[in-house]
Amino acid sequence: MYLISTQLAAFIAKTEAFTSDDSSLPGLRRNYDRMCKAFTPPKPEGLQVSDFALGGVGVRSYLPTAEAPAEGWPCLLYMHGGGWAVGGLDSHDFICFELAKALNVLVIAIDYRLAPEYPFPAAYEDCRAVWQAIQASEAPQPIDLRRLAVVGDSAGGNLAAALCLGLRDDSQPLPRAQVLIYPGLGGPADLPSRRDCRDAPLLSSADTESYLALYLQGANPPSPYAMPLLAKDFGGLPKALIAVAQFDPLRDDGMLYAERLRGAGGDAVLYPGKGLVHGCLRARGQVPEVDRLYDYLLYYLRSEGLTQV
Fold first, then answer.
1. CATH number of the domain where residue 19 is located
2. N or C: which terminus of the chain carries fewer CB neighbours within 10 A?
């Protein structure tokens, strides 16, 4: 049913080897952390990694050791995936290392509070607090606010899109771009990808529903800041790169978001992710189609001036 490459199948098998019979939330978190550690490369040379707080929220910065540009660092604000319930700063070192090193930019990752202990709007509010602290020049590194973008995968893509909505609604400064990688955006349950990919590798439709339920905790009615596709207006939002995975129940969320941004006169690039599955970012260097996704991601960020020569 899912036409995936031999290399991607091997990555999926390695990832699934970290599952266990313990389906409790602590068990899921332990298994996820073990899996992430197994796929995290050593810290590259020429990169300074520091943990501190911004706006009262824990963050991790990935700073090239080169001298800071006179106008401040181009910066990517990264929001990690994990269904709003698992993961943290360590889980997404792998991509933050890559972005900071390849683009020679400052990356700041947010250690937002997790559900169900802290359901919506906690994670959204944490991301917004970090954004506001950066705008107030509270970061220890000089940042070029004209070259500041938000990036997130899965639940992190949700938070990046939600942050853009909230800032626009409050007439606050917006990111230069929003980069969403297989985001979950609260699309309707009858989207074709929910059916076609209901038992897809690494993320099933049932998984998406259970994670969203943990995050929402019965919030009624749900807010567009929790489910961005509920927004009534998609105008005035930052330009976007939305990368989806072909075999992912969340595929149509990203496709629908791109369609609505374009329908409101916005600039949205959709990367179709042929042959990809949810959570495949960790297969960098192992799967050619994942390498192509990274190449396009880096190309897009460079084309938007989010690099430092």
1. 3.40.50.1820
2. C
In a domain, 210, yes or no: yes
**pLDDT for position 253:** 98
Catalytic residue, from 61, 91, 154, 193: name it.
154
Q: By C-alpha distance, which of 100, 99, 82 is closest to 29?
A: 82
Catalytic residue, candidates 93, 126, 248, 253: 248
Query: Does the active-site annotation cover 278?
Result: yes
pLDDT tens sequence across 255-301: 999 999 999 999 999 999 999 999 999 999 999 999 999 999 999 99
- The verdict on residue 131 lying in a domain is yes
Catalytic residue among 61, 93, 205, 278: 278
Q: List CB contacts of 125: < 8 A, sequence separation 6 or more.
A: none
